[in-house]
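seq as requested:
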Amino acid sequence: MIKFSELKSPTIGDVRFHNDRNGFCWFEKQTMSFFGSKIESSLLKGGYFITSEKNFDGTKRLYTIRKVNEDFSINTIGSFQQFTTKQLAIKYLKENITKGEDK
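C-alpha cells:
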C-alpha cells in the first residue's frame, strides 16, 4: 500500500482515489452530502486542505482545516467548523501549522 509521503506532487484527486482504495469513505458522495461538505482548496503544504460545511440550520457555511494521514485517512485539525471564512482558515494554517513543512 502506498503512503501519502511517497507521492511526489499529490493532488486532492490522488487523495480521493487512495482514500477510497484504502477502504475509507471520507470523499464518498453520500458522506459529503450528509455533512454538506465542499472541498474549498487544493492540497496545501503538508497535506492540508480546507473544507466548508453547512451549519446546523443550513443558513451559512463554516470552514474546517483537514489533514491527510499517511494511510490517506483524513483528520480534522482544530475544531469542526472553526472558521467563519476560508481566508481565516488559510491564515491560521500558514501562521500556526505549516511553517517549516516540506510538502
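The CA atoms of residues 46 and 100 lie 9 Å apart.
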